[in-house]
Amino acid sequence: MTDIIVIGAGPAGMTAAIYARRAAKTVLVLEAMSYGGQIINTPDVENYPVAAHISGFDFATRVYEQAKALGAEFRFEKAIELRDGGDLKTVVTPKGEYRARAVIIATGSKNRRLGVEGEDRLIGRGISYCATCDGAFFRKKRVAVVGGGNTALEDALYMADIAEKVYLIHRRDAFRGEEATAERLRARDNVEFVLNSQVTGLNAEKRLQSIEVTDKQGSTRVIEVSGLFVAVGRVPENQSFAGLVELDGAGYAVASENCRTKTAGVFVAGDNRVKEVRQLVTATADGAVAATEAVKYLNS
Fold first, then answer.
1. Residue 108's closest CA among 181, 6, 213, 215?
2. Could you give the CA distance from residue 61 to residue 135 in angstroms, rounded to a whole number?
């Protein structure tokens, strides 16, 4: 039996582990894939206090090593169910069951699909959700990035250094991402903005050959590209915990700024929580708050 189980080893979950261990609580972190979450795909983090320039992978690795050094235990298993037994909570994975007095859910989110016919078939055959992972395969080729948030802008900037031409497609006329990044893109000769438009078709034989883009007036344009990087948002991974955690219409966990959910002893932290700003700094802040509140709960 453990004091606190943290579900998810992204920045929020690993920060929670650090704070919980510093409060002398035993901590088990369960992670379905690898530590770090989506930040490991960011080549250069520029807006985190103190670390003006650090890769997302290096950032995640340092946090992971810090948590490990403090005594947090990590198991790479996917949490598929959470049961409330009052003073004891049970987290179920394909490999077994783990019990704790408190649980912090920090599962983050997964890539949202475009929903265009043929999308799933072309994943790995021209369609990617990670420019830093797959960008090198499209060196000196023509690619498109679709989305308007920070991830899309960063992906387009990254690909501008690799590809011959980058089309940045967004359904609105203004980006949600940081204006500083958008300005850097405007200065690139090989980047073309395709605004007020959506990808409505994929043309391919064995691999992606071109995309169909439709604007708000209904005009259609075919753009020849070898790669399409999709960055249209994230879907929170909370469905396994819906019985114990209230979810909003988009599937995000409802919790106040103290990260407490409707179930005593269950907390939520990071991008899977209802909040206004989803950034690295707010994820780590959530982790610190959730762990502090969990420790208060255990000590009360």
1. 6
2. 22
Could you give the residue numbers annotated as active site? 130, 133-134
198: which strand partners? 214
| φ, ψ at 38 (rounded to 5°) | -70, -15
Q: For the range 30-33, what are the long-range contacts, defined as Cβ-Cβ under 8 Å and sequence gap of 24 or more?
A: 30/5, 30/6, 30/75, 30/76, 30/77, 30/78, 30/79, 30/91, 30/93, 30/98, 31/74, 31/75, 31/76, 31/77, 32/76, 32/77, 32/78, 32/79, 33/76
Amino acid in position 29: V
DSSP strand pairing (109-111 vs 96-105): unpaired
DSSP-derived 3-state class of residue 28: strand
Q: What is the pLDDT of residues 43-70, one digit of tens each?
A: 788 889 988 899 999 999 999 999 999 9
- Nearest of 204, 5, 41 to residue 120 by alpha carbon: 204
pTM for this predicted structure:
0.78
Please give the torsion angle defined by the CA atoms of residues 148, 153, 155 and 156, in that order, rounded to the nearest 10 degrees: 100
User: Residue 104 is encoded by which pair of tokens?
Assistant: 């912090």
CA 239, CA 22: separation in Å to the nearest integer? 31
Largest Cα–Cα distance of the chain, in whole Å?
A: 63
60 neighbors 70 (Cβ within 8 angstroms): no
